[in-house]
C-alpha cells in the first residue's frame, strides 16, 4: 500500500522515540562510608576513602567527592588526635615530680619540685613557673625544705588561706640540726588562683641562703 508523501518531507510510517540516556553509574558504597568513618575514626576513614577512589577508577562508579571528603576528615581528625596526645604527654612531663637530688642541672616547672631539690637561684617575687634545679653538691642559692599538698578535689580556699596552710610547714624546725640558720630566709610558695585552676595543689617552703652554698640544708 502506498501513501502520499508527507508535506513535511518524512515518511508517516516511521516513528521516532524520544532520545534516551544510559543510567547513571551507581555511587560507590565505600565512598559513602568514608565520610562518617573519617569523622569518627580518623585514619580508618582515610583508608576507606583511598579504597573507594581505587574502586571508582576501576569500576567507573561515582562518589569521588565523598571519598575525598572522607579522606580530608580522616586526616584532620588524625592530626587533632595526635596533637591532643602530644599535649597530654608534654603536660604530664611538665608536672612529673623530680628526684629529690637531680644528677645534673635542668630546668623544671615549680610544680615538679619535691622536698630536697636545690635551686641555682631564687626566682624574683611573684608567680613562679620555670626554675633551674641543680645537684645539691653544686653551688646553689635555695632549696626546697618542706612541701605540703592540697587534696586534688579541694575547693580553692583563697590566696590568704592557701599561703597560711603552707606557712604552717615552713619553719626553721625543718632544717637539719647542724644546718646554719644565720642569713637563711624561709620563703612560702603557695598555689595562685590561676595555677590552682590548672591543677596545681603544691605548696613549698624554700630556704634562700642569700649566697651560693654547697650541700643540703635538710637531713
TrEMBL record:
The keyword Ribosomal protein does not apply. Keywords: Membrane, Transmembrane, Transmembrane helix. The chain crosses the membrane at residues 30-54, 66-90. Residues 116-207 form the Septum formation-related domain. InterPro entries: DUF4190 (IPR025241), Septum_form (IPR026004). Signal peptide: none annotated. Residues 31-82 form the DUF4190 domain. This is Regulator of septum formation. It comes from Oerskovia jenensis.
Amino acid at each position: 500500500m502506498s501513501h502520499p508523501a508527507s508535506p513535511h518531507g518524512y515518511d508517516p510510517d516511521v516513528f521516532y522515540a524520544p532520545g534516551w540516556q544510559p543510567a547513571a553509574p551507581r555511587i560507590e558504597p565505600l565512598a559513602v562510608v568514608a565520610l562518617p568513618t573519617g569523622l569518627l575514626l580518623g585514619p580508618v576513614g582515610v583508608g576507606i576513602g583511598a579504597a573507594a577512589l581505587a574502586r571508582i577508577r576501576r569500576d567507573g562508579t561515582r562518589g569521588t567527592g565523598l571519598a575525598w571528603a572522607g579522606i580530608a576528615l580522616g586526616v584532620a581528625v588524625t592530626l587533632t588526635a595526635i596533637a591532643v596526645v602530644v599535649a597530654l604527654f608534654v603536660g604530664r612531663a611538665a608536672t612529673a615530680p623530680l628526684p629529690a637530688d637531680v644528677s645534673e642541672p635542668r630546668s623544671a616547672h615549680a610544680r615538679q619540685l619535691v622536698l630536697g631539690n636545690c635551686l641555682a637561684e631564687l626566682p624574683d617575687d611573684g608567680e613562679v613557673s620555670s626554675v633551674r634545679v641543680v645537684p645539691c653538691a653544686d653551688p646553689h642559692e635555695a632549696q626546697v625544705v618542706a612541701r605540703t599538698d592540697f587534696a586534688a578535689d579541694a575547693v580553692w580556699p583563697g590566696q590568704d588561706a592557701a599561703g597560711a596552710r603552707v606557712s604552717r610547714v615552713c619553719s626553721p624546725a625543718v632544717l637539719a640540726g647542724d644546718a646554719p640558720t644565720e642569713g637563711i630566709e624561709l620563703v612560702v610558695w603557695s598555689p595562685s588562683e590561676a595555677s590552682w585552676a590548672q591543677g596545681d595543689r603544691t605548696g613549698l617552703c624554700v630556704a634562700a641562703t642569700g649566697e651560693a652554698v654547697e650541700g643540703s640544708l635538710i637531713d
